[in-house]
Design brief:
Shape: flat
Helix content: 25-40%
Radius of gyration: 18 Å
Number of strands: 5
Strand content: 15-25%
Order of helices and strands: HHHEEEEHEH
Number of helices: 5
Largest sheet: 3 strands, mixed
Strand order of the largest sheet: 4-3-5
Distance between the termini: 43 Å
Structural class: alpha+beta
């Protein structure tokens, strides 16, 4: 193994700041395409590739979290421990606050068998209130 090297912090570019602010400025979990559209308001010539690279750097630096389901990745600036609910019809994705430090029965069973749980990721998937209403079943997909 290599000895620990002194890590040089990344330079905070305007693009990276705008990308971070776009994600941090919404309570939703936006996609890269949504972030790109938001950043283009302030920087019209920014490319989708630049937004993707900056999102990945922000995740690597621990400033954002990335959540992937299927072929869609969503980003979150809330680094606290929390869970999620997502609507499979419209794409709504919301945070669920954790209360206390209670562990699920599975975590207790894993610990009893000597396994170490470092992180818990829990997501509830279903229909949001609006999509569950039969009259709303053909609504437009939700976008953050």
């Amino acid at each position: 193994m290599k000895p620990a090297e002194t890590e040089v912090p990344r330079r905070e570019t305007r693009q990276r700041r705008l990308v971070y602010e776009a994600v941090a400025g919404t309570p939703t979990h936006p996609t890269a395409e949504w972030v790109h559209a938001r950043v283009r308001r302030a920087m019209p010539r920014v490319s989708l590739g630049t937004v993707y690279r900056n999102l990945q750097l922000l995740v690597a630096d621990g400033r954002l979290k990335a959540w992937t389901r299927g072929r869609t990745t969503r980003f979150d600036a809330d680094l606290s421990s929390h869970d999620h609910f997502s609507c499979e019809e419209c794409g709504l994705w919301i945070d669920l606050e954790r209360t206390g430090h209670t562990f699920s029965p599975w975590e207790k069973k894993l610990a009893a068998r000597g396994h170490q749980v470092h992180e818990r990721v829990l997501e509830f998937v279903g229909l949001c209130r609006d999509c569950a209403e039969p009259k709303n079943r053909r609504r437009v997909r939700w976008r953050p």
